[in-house]
From TrEMBL:
The protein's name in its UniProt record: CarboxypepD_reg-like domain-containing protein
Range of residues in the leader sequence: 1-20
Superkingdom of origin: Bacteria
InterPro entries found in the cross-reference section: CarboxyPept-like_regulatory
Keywords: Signal
Length: 276
């Protein structure tokens, strides 16, 4: 009887170890036309567990077993978001189908006069550095800042930020522009993806966004989302320029669908040109 009891304890112990391990899900995201969807944000909302799909739409994600009964949110600009139960993704390589969405064009009154332009935000690169540390399991991490604007109606024309050190041969960002709600980033107001590829060691990165018809209402938030890199150096740290003043304006989140966190130490050097 003692032998049986010890054996049972051993089995229970092994079972607890297995249950404590991460579960792994993988699959491919496609549109209704069966075409793969690249750089789809995938994650458990507000739990800092997420990733983005690869250029061919495929994705892999390790999830702590405690979230087995939760759902993954799939979202990307131009398509309706979709929640999928994690249980349904286990034991296979499923296709996740997203349906396209249309956007209502907002009516903008255009006055018959030459538009004025204004540059807001941080214009000098500064000497400090903010590190953005990249691992394969946190694609979709974002770094950005708020812009205070006293213009109820304006158009976003250009964005600039400074990279102090880039160890990658090539790195790809997605630009996101969010509304402000209760002092935090809220709804993404873009209607199409804006991608930026950077391959220099350091310097200013200028992004002309004038063709995207972006019209913030008052204050807005801009982030750079890390979605792809071409090589895997041992030191995977990307350094943005920053300053000490105004740290309350800089926010980040670790992964897709994760929680936003405000910086308490430094302010990201980024500026925006608006017309009005």
């Amino acid at each position: 009887m003692r032998v049986v009891f010890i054996g049972l304890l051993g089995l229970l112990h092994c079972f607890s170890i297995v249950r404590a391990q991460d579960i792994h899900v993988n699959g491919q995201v496609r549109g209704q036309d069966e075409m793969p969807l690249a750089y789809v944000n995938i994650g458990i909302e507000l739990q800092n567990i997420g990733t983005v799909s690869q250029p061919d739409g495929r994705f892999e994600l390790s999830i702590p077993d405690e979230y087995r009964t939760d759902s993954l949110l799939f979202s990307v600009i131009g398509y309706h978001p979709r929640k999928v139960a994690i249980q349904s993704l286990l034991g296979g390589n499923p296709n996740i189908i997203l349906s396209p969405r249309s956007y209502e064009m907002e009516h903008i009154n255009v006055k018959a006069k030459r538009a004025k332009t204004k540059k807001i935000g941080r214009k000098r690169k500064g000497l400090l550095k903010i590190v953005m540390y990249m691992e394969d399991d946190n694609l979709g991490s974002e770094f950005g800042r708020f812009f205070e604007s006293d213009k109820e109606h304006s158009k976003l024309e250009n964005l600039s930020f400074y990279i102090h050190h880039n160890p990658f041969d090539s790195i790809k960002f997605r630009v996101n522009v969010y509304e402000e709600e209760n002092g935090e980033p809220s709804k993404n107001i873009l209607r199409e993806n804006i991608f930026v590829t950077y391959g220099e060691e350091s310097g200013w990165v200028n992004v002309d966004v004038s063709k995207y018809e972006i019209y913030p209402k008052g204050n807005f938030f801009v982030s750079m989302e890390w979605i792809e890199d071409k090589n895997h150096p041992e030191d995977r740290k990307l350094f943005f320029a920053s300053r000490l003043i105004g740290a309350k304006d800089t926010w980040s989140r670790k992964v897709s669908q994760g929680t936003w966190k405000r910086s308490n130490s430094a302010d990201m050097v980024m500026n925006a040109t608006i017309s009005y």
